[in-house]
């Protein structure tokens, strides 16, 4: 039995990509079918998650059997910029579970992270695996706004990532973005965004210089994230959608959208919960970590 502990990302040692990468992604695909396609999307967009991740891996012979990765996520929490550690890619190969390998690797991860980060975050459908390591569930909320809006213009277009200009635009806005909320928001982050949003339609309004991660379902508008140097009002967003919208569901705190009569409800996004370890100033506030930043 061999154990590898890396205190560096793949990008800092190209040999890791050659000697470790294929075996790690084999484990990832076995545990999370389809994840490799999402990772490949990030590579094509220019910010692969392995470039930003510090991998902790245990091997059996030449087979990766357990992995826990650590990413840095620059956030704004209650108006203060902080860098948190994001725990992601937690996986143990079937046949090697319930033998203590995951616990051993996670303990290494926490020993490493405690020297660097005051706060760790992760999202998971299975919080029971992280409670023994000091993580706790933080309740999240979605925000409903009733309206009756039919825009006069079609002010949105879908970005085309085969177009170099659109790809350059996306990178520029991610690098210069304002937080979508000062309660909990993200700034200047790409790898996690690309994994979560890179395979979805992203809408761009040129006059607002804003990318919206949004979906329309009948007369409902779902807004998951906004990427822009300046967050505009909900009215500005709706006025550029040339169809009737009677309800808007917002998946982050909407204090910057200039909305009134907001209803909020506890919600698990895609059946996952947010867990934190250590200091988290927004605990007890009503918010949701945007879909684009969940790992």
From TrEMBL:
Matches recorded under PROSITE patterns: GNAT (PS51186)
Annotated TM spans: none
Domain N-acetyltransferase: 12-168
Protein name: GNAT family N-acetyltransferase
Organism per entry: Nostoc parmelioides FACHB-3921
Origin organism lineage: Bacteria, Bacillati, Cyanobacteriota, Cyanophyceae, Nostocales
């Amino acid at each position: 039995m061999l154990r590898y502990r890396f205190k560096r990302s793949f990008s800092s040692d190209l040999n890791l990509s050659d000697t470790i990468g294929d075996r790690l992604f084999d484990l990832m695909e076995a545990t999370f079918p389809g994840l490799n396609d999402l990772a490949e999307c990030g590579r094509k967009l220019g910010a692969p998650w392995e470039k930003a991740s510090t991998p902790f891996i245990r091997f059996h012979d030449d087979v990766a059997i357990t992995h826990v990765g650590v990413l840095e996520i620059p956030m704004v929490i209650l108006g203060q910029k902080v860098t948190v550690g994001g725990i992601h890619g937690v996986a143990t190969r079937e046949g090697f579970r319930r033998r203590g390998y995951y616990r051993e690797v996670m303990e290494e991860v926490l020993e490493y992270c405690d020297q660097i980060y005051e706060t760790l975050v992760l999202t998971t459908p299975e919080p029971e695996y992280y409670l023994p390591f000091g993580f706790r569930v933080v309740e999240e909320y979605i925000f409903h706004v009733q309206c009756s809006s039919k825009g006069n213009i079609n002010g949105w277009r879908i970005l085309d990532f085969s177009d170099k200009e659109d790809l350059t635009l996306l990178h520029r806005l991610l690098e210069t973005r304002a937080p979508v909320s000062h309660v909990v928001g993200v700034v200047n982050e790409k790898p996690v965004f690309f994994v979560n949003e890179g395979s979805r339609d992203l809408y761009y309004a040129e006059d607002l210089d804003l990318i919206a991660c949004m979906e329309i379902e009948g007369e409902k508008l779902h807004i998951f994230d906004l990427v822009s140097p300046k967050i505009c009002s909900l009215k500005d967003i709706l006025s550029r959608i040339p169809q009737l919208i009677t309800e808007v569901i917002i998946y982050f705190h909407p204090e910057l959208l200039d909305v009134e009569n907001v209803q909020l409800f506890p919600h698990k996004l895609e059946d996952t919960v947010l867990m934190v370890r250590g200091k988290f100033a927004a605990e007890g506030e009503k918010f949701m970590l945007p879909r684009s930043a969940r790992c």
